[in-house]
Structures are given as C-alpha cells and as structure tokens.
Specification:
By secondary structure, the chain is α/β, with parallel strands linked by helices. The chain is built from 12 helices and 7 strands.
Length: 268
C-alpha cells in the first residue's frame, strides 16, 4: 500500500477535491472551504513542499531541483493511497497553487470535473519581450535579494499593498524571510514549464477563473491568457486583491464551494 505523503491532509467522504495554496501560505488557508465541502466530498488539502507542515529545514534543503512535477507526483501518490487514482476530481488553486492546479489539469484533462483558480501565476505563459514580461523580470530580481527580509518585503508588498510586510508581527516577518528561498524555487519551477495555450484548451471541464479588482496587473494579464485558452469558463471578479482567497475568505471560498457543487449535482 502506498503511504499518504507527508503534508497532505484528507477529510470528508465522496468525490475528490484537491486544494492547492499559494506561496508563503499553507493548507490552513482553505479552512473555510474545507468546512463547506467535507460533508459531501473527500478533500485532499495539500501543504506544498516548503510550507506548512512540510516547511522544515530538512525539506527546504532537499529542494534544490524543485519542479512542479514533484507536487503532481505527491498528489498522484495521495490519490493512490485513497484508491481513487482512476476517478475524476475537482481542482482548486490560488496563485502558485493555481499554477500547480492548471498543470495538473493539463496533464490529465480527462480526469478534471471542475477547475477553480484564483489568479494562477503560470508565469511561463507570458510572452517574451512584452511589457508584462519586463514587469515579471523586475519582480524576480527584487524578490531574489540576498537579504531575505528585503526579499520578503518586496514579495509580500507586491502581492498585497505597500507597507504590508512591515505591518506584520516580527515572528511572521521572520517566518516569511525564512521561506523566501522556497519562494524563489517556486518562481523557477513556474518559469520552467513548457505547456501552452493549446494544451490548456484541451481542458473541457467547466472552469472558474477568479481575480481581485485590486490585484496587480501581472496576475490579471495571466488570468486573461488562461481564460482565452479555455472554452467552458466563467470569470469572477471580487472586490479584493491577489490574496483575496485569504483576506476575503468568507466571500471567496463559499463561492468556490458553490461552483464545485453546481458541477456535482448528486451532492446537492
């Protein structure tokens, strides 16, 4: 029997839903959504390597050659552990987790029941030489600073608001700085992907692509690229920023649950 990988949390019973969080976060960001789903679904809530329950130094030191495919393998192991590897599933993802969710869907589009992504940062889809690519390269440069506190401040302020990092308690700042090496590995993993719009178009399951009205242009551009590559897609815009899944969880996460249930009518 295949063991459940460390850092993957399973609750509930029924059709499978896979939850993937953002960088500098953990599976705990989905607590509201889990509560909405666990009575009707088997929820696989993933701590991405380097974060949450798998954010220890040993894990971080073993991820020099980190790629998104490593997370896909962990998810596949979880599905095998639960004996549902041949069954379809719903995918939910936010930011880095959204990009992972998109990769998972691209690799097995026939398995996807629905796809709910909040600003998936699939950076490799940005056109070379474009203004957006210049913005991305500048961001990469700033968040790869040798001083990890400066890197964390640049990263968190970009995806939230200016001054956000300094408003946090000291222990939270320290934790974010500690995880910045993994954040940069996430970025390398994202930019190393090779699938394109044609592969995304093979996803025939209903998709909901979500953005925040106050989010950076970078993530909005990426959302539009993905929306334009999908056929069966709904767009939702929330009065929030890139971290709206967390900052506006009581609004955003029930909307995701509603979308999933609307495409699995036998649990209504």
């Amino acid at each position: 029997m295949i063991d459940l990988p460390q850092g993957i949390h399973v609750s509930g019973k029924g059709p499978t839903v896979i939850l993937l969080h953002s960088s500098l976060s953990s599976s705990k960001q989905w607590v509201t959504l889990v509560q909405h789903l666990k009575n009707d679904f088997t929820v696989i809530n993933v701590d991405i390597l380097g974060y949450g329950s798998v954010g220890d130094k040993e894990t971080l030191s073993s991820l020099e050659n980190y790629r998104a495919s490593i997370e896909v393998e962990r998810i596949q192991q979880a599905l095998q552990h639960l004996h549902v590897e041949d069954q379809p599933y719903h995918i939910v993802g936010h930011s880095f987790g959204g990009a992972l969710g998109l990769k998972l869907a691209v690799e097995a589009p026939e398995k996807v029941l629905s796809l709910s992504l909040y600003e998936p940062v699939a950076f490799h889809l940005i056109e070379e030489g474009s203004e957006t690519k210049e913005v991305l390269n500048d961001l990469f440069k700033r968040v790869s600073a040798d001083d990890l506190f400066i890197a964390a401040e640049e990263f968190m302020d970009y995806w939230n608001i200016k001054g956000f990092f300094k408003s946090l308690p000291s222990r939270v700042q320290q934790g974010a700085a500690h995880e910045m090496n993994k954040v940069n590995l996430d970025s390398i993993a994202l930019i190393s992907e090779t699938y394109g719009k044609d592969e995304i178009n093979k996803i025939t399951a209903p998709a909901m692509i979500m953005t925040g009205s106050q989010s950076p242009t970078l993530s909005k551009v990426l959302a539009d690229i993905i929306v334009n590559a999908l056929d069966d897609v709904t767009q939702e815009v929330f009065e929030a920023g890139h971290m709206g899944v967390i900052s506006h969880a009581p609004i955003v996460q029930p909307k995701i649950a509603e979308f999933i249930k609307s495409h699995h009518t036998d649990v209504l």
